[in-house]
Write a structure and sequence with these properties.
InterPro entries: DUF6625 (IPR046733). Pfam families: DUF6625. The longest helix is centred in the last third of the chain and has 25 residues. The chain has a 7-stranded mixed β-sheet with strand order 3-2-1-4-7-6-8. Strands 12-11-10-14-15 form a 5-stranded antiparallel β-sheet. Strands 5-13-9 form a 3-stranded mixed β-sheet. The protein has 2 domains: 184 residues, Spore Coat Polysaccharide Biosynthesis Protein SpsA, Chain A (Alpha-Beta Complex), CATH 3.90.550; 99 residues, no CATH class. It is α/β, with parallel strands linked by helices. Strand 14 and strand 15 form a beta hairpin.
Length: 324
């Protein structure tokens, strides 16, 4: 690929249990470079792939780095707030991104497919900003695009966002999306990303287009979904199976079981609702679809209860803080 791209992940705390699979899928995207800024020790994962740079940094050091470009005091008390600063990575992390044509921010709760099939040189040549989500958005590495977050503050002022403890989702629809539209920036959005619905135990894309029987797997650097189109004439046990390819799957911080080390060297692996397993076959029968993408009764009710309880705990902590 002619355009040089650096995709940045900033993460503090314990890395996800399936981080080795993130590394494995990122390494297969050899035309993209990756920068991981973290306080975690990654030496236990063996040799880091050549296209991935790991910058060991404490959270307090990153906070100092984030504050440097601004003439006002920023609020960055906890790692969750870093998401709001993502549109400013072009200036905050300029010393790491110098020399690249493009930079991007991403998450670690992701398994990457073959990104070059979805974000080609022609896309990078024709647009200035690509995608709309916190889990992956590309920015052309120019002064104008890197400082775009400072403009059109009648939508939402970056000063307000960066000086508040509140999370504004400034890296997505509530902030930089509106700003880039107002600025008339050439924007491209490839919707072939599987954004797993956090309210469903089964792996289902939040944007719809799901099938009753569908499974996800990674194989030879690509991410695939296989699915069955229900038809009265199909064979029940061995139906006709269709397959489509995706740029990546975003697991939305979904709790996954610890991975088997066999996955690291496997040609492919299945991505199930709560675990990963080695892909052992080329063809799948109906029983495989039920086994690899199970459902759980009452999962949505339990999930809703958990979210409500968490929000009440946060409100109570906020109330205690405001009274102290």
């Amino acid at each position: 690929m002619k355009n040089s791209v650096c995709i940045v992940a900033v993460y503090f705390g314990r890395l996800p249990d399936y981080f080795p699979l993130w590394l494995k899928s990122a390494a297969k995207n050899e035309s993209f470079n990756w920068l991981l800024i973290t306080d975690a020790d990654v030496s236990c994962y063996g040799d880091i792939p050549a296209n991935i740079i790991v910058e060991r940094m404490g959270f307090s050091d990153f906070k100092d780095c984030a504050a440097e470009p601004f003439d006002f005091e920023i609020s960055l008390r906890a790692p969750y707030k870093i998401c709001d600063f993502r549109p400013a990575f072009g200036v905050i992390l300029s010393r790491y991104l110098s020399g690249y044509d493009w930079w991007a921010h991403c998450d670690l709760d992701v398994i990457w497919g073959d990104l070059s099939k979805f974000f080609s040189d022609s896309v990078f040549c024709d647009f200035d900003r690509i995608q709309e989500n916190g889990h992956l958005t590309f920015y052309r590495n120019t002064d104008y695009i890197n400082n775009m977050f400072r403009t059109h503050d009648y939508f939402l002022s970056h000063r307000e966002v960066f000086s508040s403890d509140r999370s504004y989702c400034f890296d997505e629809w509530g902030g930089i999306h509106n700003i880039s539209y107002a600025a008339g920036v050439r924007n491209y959005w490839n919707k072939k990303i599987f954004d797993a619905n956090s309210n469903s135990f089964m792996l289902r894309d939040v944007c719809g287009g799901n099938f009753k029987l569908q499974i996800l797997y990674w194989e030879d650097g690509c991410l695939y979904r296989e699915y069955v189109v229900e038809d009265d004439n199909i064979c029940w046990a061995n139906p006709v199976v269709c397959r489509d390819e995706w740029a990546y799957v975003h697991l939305q911080k979904r709790p996954m079981r610890s991975i088997d080390l066999k996955l690291i060297g496997a040609r492919g692996f299945y991505i199930s609702p709560d675990n990963f397993s080695v892909k052992m076959k080329r063809e799948h029968c109906r029983a495989d679809f039920f086994e690899l993408n199970k459902n759980r009764v009452f999962y949505r009710v339990k999930k809703r209860f958990f979210v409500l309880a968490r929000n009440w705990v946060r409100r109570f902590k906020w109330l205690l803080g405001s009274l102290s």
